[in-house]
Amino acid sequence: MSTSYQSPVHASTDGGIMTLTMNRPECKNAINIDMYEQLANRFAEAADDKSIRVVVITGAGGCFTSGNDLMDFASNPPTDEKSAVAVFLRTLYTFEKPVIAAVDGNAVGIGTTMLLHCDLVYASAGAKFKLPFVNLGLCPEFACSQILPLLAGHVRASELLLLGESFGVDTARDIGIINTVAEGDSSLNLALENARKVAAQPPMALRKTKALIRDYRFKDGFKVMEEEMKAFRDGLQSPEFAEAVGAFFEKRAPDFSKFD
């Protein structure tokens, strides 16, 4: 077993399982550019390492992730397809091996859309999910605008995306974002238990089965992601985003009444 604890993304390997832990608990594991780069690199390493059969992703300190680090995002917006954000999205989207998520606490923004690209997702009873893109003057990313309506239906997807309100494990399970609610306080034990089962399966059959399962949306997904990212990048330069971020740091309600 090997473990690295030198970065905000901890990577450990054991028995064919790579566990990635987002580790900025002081800011609820908000993802900055450095973390996007490291996550993309770790997934690329797992893709090339034949001994790795499955990847588990989780968050430290009882929180999956509070989403993007807004200060870092405003200072270092993803301006093109070479950005760390875009590279991570493509890397996870094309990752051929099974990915299992263990969700404790909050899964905000990318913390929820990331789950749409995991193959098994387990959550603690107190987990909360949120897609606050519109609230921030932005649009969804990671092909969420395609996948969520396929899972939840048009009106329910619209409710989650247009209102951007948090929802719990019952809703997440009903619409197919998570598999099971773990007993106790942590979902990681359940995720690792099932990761060991998956890791024992024939690797080629696993990869081919995963490819077949996601084929119905995979071919069009890149186009959707490109359209989303263009709109997302435009949103980052908008006065609506500036107002939302300013209100967040000033701890006040944003005022969008002056925009049309």
UniProtKB/TrEMBL annotation:
GO molecular function, one term: delta(3)-delta(2)-enoyl-CoA isomerase activity
Cellular compartments annotated: Peroxisome
Keywords on record: Isomerase, Peroxisome
Superkingdom, natural source: Bacteria
Name this polypeptide is given: Enoyl-CoA hydratase
